[in-house]
Structures
1.
Amino acid sequence: MTDADAITESGPAETSLDPLDVDNAAKLTTRIVDNVERVIVGHRDAIEHILIALFARGNLLLEDVPGVGKTMLARAVATSLECSFSRVQFTPDLLPADVTGVSVFNEKTREFEFQPGPIFANVVLGDEINRAPPKTQAALLEVMAEQQVTVDGETHAVPDPFTVIATQNDVEPGRTYELPVAEIDRFTKKIRLGYPTEAEETELLGRVAGEHPIESLESVATVEDVRRARETVSGVTVREPVRAYVSRLAGYTREHARLGVSPRGTIALLRSAQARAVFEGRGYVIPDDVQTEAPTVLSHRIRTDSDVDGGSIVDRALEEVAVE
């Protein structure tokens, strides 16, 4: 079996899995969050955002200053889920093939064989993604939307589950490239970690004084658990009034910005609200789920011609759009 065959076989299964019941799925999410908190101090909400993006079959963008734990957070989540983890350090000289993989000629078989790149993992950390030029960033567009990579006309499925956690450096704008709108729109969520409080940093220093806790962290969920939880999320009921509310929020952003939320954005919001409902132990979405998820799902998709940012427009939408 070639590497390409192995990659294809590890892709999305053709047979559907039985979903977890909502109570067990909620317990699973709590167990994972608690486990990650053994490594990450003071960012329970960020851990939840990553899991919601994963269970909603999406990707997440972390924008922050260096050294606040972005890479460690991604590693801790992957380890807790018993998932494969891969890290790609984006640099100005990185090529698309360095991310997706390349076809190499085998002298023995006289055929080209696909050598998979680091994108073939359950959890892929794209570190400082905005340091790479647009051509390299574009290598992520297909896989983030369709969970597959096409190289030399052949399509290869990535492992299931799959999620990209990308970090973005926001302190050296002169040495980075702006992410294209098409790529930003493929991130289900965008969040920031921020600096820890004094108490949190003191706790953190106590934990890493000896062996780093990531070295002894063990998984608390299997890949199958994640797949079944995803099926649970997909089955969460979203009634017409809630769907209409999501549509009205998106419509508000389109009326009050040069570039509003795309249909892909409304789908991401709906799926995130479904995941939030499961986190809360419910099998149905309520408007509160939508309102909780809207800031991290919609804000980064909005562009204006003024100093007003996307977050402010989403805040106003949540205030002014009625829940009917």
2.
Amino acid sequence: MIQEAAKKEVMDRLRKEILAAEGLQRPTYEPRLHLGLQALEMAFPDQTFPTGCIHEFISPDTERAAATTGFIAALLSHIAVQKGPCVWVSRQHRIFAPALLSFGLQPDQVIFINPDKDKDLLWTTEQALKCSSLTAVIADVQELDLTASRRLQLAVEQSRVTGFLHRHNPRTMGHTACVARWQVQSLCSEATAVPGLGFPRWQVNLLKVRNGRPGSWIVDWTADQFRITEPVPETITREEAYTYTKVAQA
């Protein structure tokens, strides 16, 4: 019995050391972040949504890009209450700031930066990620290689800023140093007692996660909070698997 307890202690210590080396270990001074996504958060090694690291979102088309933007805004509304403002870097003016209120995010919490060139976009993103006064940095990038993603991951390991890289219609998937790779698509809203538009609903696919378990969930955004209505039986649907394979092989 004592021998088994000693083994478990050693394994727990090694697991924490590995997570810390990979930038996934939450410092003791940081409060645990609760998003209301318990089933989804269990997919991560620390059973909580990882902050202070880089997340990658893949959107093969405009419809999924719009759904992803809404999901990211909803995540920010929970993350931004803990620290300072966010920075949104994009070459396109796609965001209608007042609409962020629909996802619980105050528009004045977000600083929008629109560089003219791709190289300026990545440089701006890296510099913003190094600023520990920020809560999160969102960057709309199309192409991302392993070297660039490593630079961004190294930047957040010191500042503990959370990075969201939204890749709209990338030519190739490739390998990156991001902790998690997501794909989000919109679904029909649940019927409500009041006629009209329902609350946003997404199918959230966690395609890849370091030291965690990929999965897929149906997520509603109701009254400024997340609600998982049901898990998707398979990791990704046949349509999503086809889209993912098609983009990866392009």
3.
Amino acid sequence: MKDHWKDYQARWHLLEAPLRPNQEVVDAITLAVGGETSNVLLLGVTPELVEAFEHLTAVDKSEEMIGALWQPSKSTQTVREANWLNMNDAFGPYSAVVGDGCINALQSADEIERLMRVLKARLLDGGRFVCRVFERPDEPITDEDLLLSIDSAAHGNFHAFKWQIAMSLAEQSGASVRAVDILASFNRLFPDRDRIAEKTGWSLEVINTIDVYEQSSMSLCFPNRQEFEQHFALGFDEFEWLASGTYDLAERCPIVLAKRAAKH
């Protein structure tokens, strides 16, 4: 099996919303963070979010992702190579923690719950955790839905479609899905990529980004709304859901704003 992130960074320029945050997402996240920007922790090295916060520490476990994407514009921005789940007292405390899709990049529900507890410990009293997530719908997505989507005029971009395949599999497997299974499902349903490109207008270069999942060791998690809320409740005193924009699949990509209660 191969390290997913070593190949992923090479395809970063081919990604678009929902896989990458557009300006709508960045604006929504910064608005939700509000004035809590004196000391921000970023989960990952998402360039669009690096640009959004002046006082920022980014944390990513992938040396390749850091090398490819980390481009700080201010001396008050730093990066550390570390696993989010292992952040101890040497990290923080922070006024806010932000991220984009980072919860879905975890391997299991147990890891999500562990991260929630870690983040609460890393936040100052009254601090905020603001993150866009990808949630699978309560109504299962079937193979028939995916096939019909390709034939419709509203199939969206390829990355939104790929996430629907992943969400379909996650419904069958209990939220967690292996990256190799996303690729296998796509190849099974759509063996002729030239035909899909012709029907949808998607370029083969973009369609072929799914091959990053070949022999990947990674799993992804796609909880539904109820499962997400159960996870957040373990780490935070209150949370709310915010819209993230109007791009393809935005209805399945809300932003969570979770708060650590301030002591009185």
